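Title: Request for sanity check on PLP-dependent aminotransferase family protein prediction

Description:
We are preparing a figure and want to confirm that the structure record we downloaded matches what your pipeline produces today. Could someone re-run it with the sequence below and paste the raw structure tokens into this thread? We only need the token string, no images.
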Amino acid sequence: MAQVRPSAIGELLALGADPSIISFGGGYPDATLFPADQLAKVFDEIIRAPGGAAMQYAPSDGLPRLREQIAALMVADGMACTAGDVLVLQGSQQGLDFAARMLVDPGDVIVTEDPTFLGALIAFAPSQPAYAVVPVDAHGMRTDLLAGVLAANPKARMIYTVPDFQNPTGVTLSLARRKELIALANRHDLIVLEDTPYRHIRFSGQNLPTLKSLDTEGRVIHLGSFSKVLVPGLRIGWALAAPDLLARMGLLKVAADTQTSTLNMAAASLFLDRYDLWAHIARLRAAYAVKKEAMLDAIRRHLPQDIAATDPEGGLFTWLTFDEGFDATAFMRDVALPKARVAFVPGATFFPLTPRANFARLNFSAQPIEKIEAGIAALGRALHTRP
Ligand code: PMP
């Protein structure tokens, strides 16, 4: 428990909930795009169905029909599997927790991108890992540096990666690097934890194969989620993994919460039967592509030219790089929130080992276009007048 601390940014982001503040902080999908009418229909139907199965306990691995449907989605994405290879989780976040509990003893090393997803660091913390980090560039994790990192860290147990439209940077791991990562994991006998909540929110460029689809040795645990493509409130994610790994995660599932909510699994399942998830995702991709462009365009027009922003091919975030010496946490606390009335996530919190101050993560999915414009303009005014 001593390892589990409140996140330093929680307090700042709580301020972002103030409606007078434009928040680019949370990784929230656009709530106006939630399929509310369709979900209302499926919830009504499952609750009224004779026998009350949707209100009953369910198998801890997940409703069989939903596991089949998820397996079909994974097969369509190039991963050979059946329902038995799928464990339904309470969000992919639960998979991060289980993977660390299953694989990492205190002092074992987790290899991550630098920066990486803060929620993963929070989930891993109770397992008391040590970290070895690999920088990212425009093509994702620098796998040319990974070999050296692994050679220097014999206690490495797993590589955690967000290959598609990474949180926080928005960058995507190239195909060559995907292959190199798998080859290195094979050579060093490591588990790869592949976390893909943004994978299907692609605006441009070519879909790349998942690490799982490149894995011939059963060492990739693939995590998927309905949070960004359906609604996060359902709290439905899943793991796809080799039988021995999946069985052990299944034991942790029983211990943690017995099962994911039957109601939510049944609703997701009926939604998939009744409606076209891919058509819904196509709408999300189109809408978020416009928002991404609006934010990048506003950044080009309003922010000082020396601030670099990633131009992601998908996902929910862009990542700003300020000049060395700029402290984005202090800027947020002293200027952006109180004066510009704009929130973002200062980058320091995403670095597992050595926080770096001159970065910020901006979400472009949650706010309407006019607030994206107004918020970036306000940030620009604040940055142009900074001392
Ligand atoms: N992994 C990454 C990279 C994320 O950004 C998130 C949520 N923002 C999660 C996992 C957790 O998602 P969920 O539990 O809602 O599936």
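Thanks, this matches our download. Residues 27, 91-93, 117, 119, 162, 167, 195, 197, 225, 227, 232, 237 surround 4'-deoxy-4'-aminopyridoxal-5'-phosphate (CB under 6 Å).
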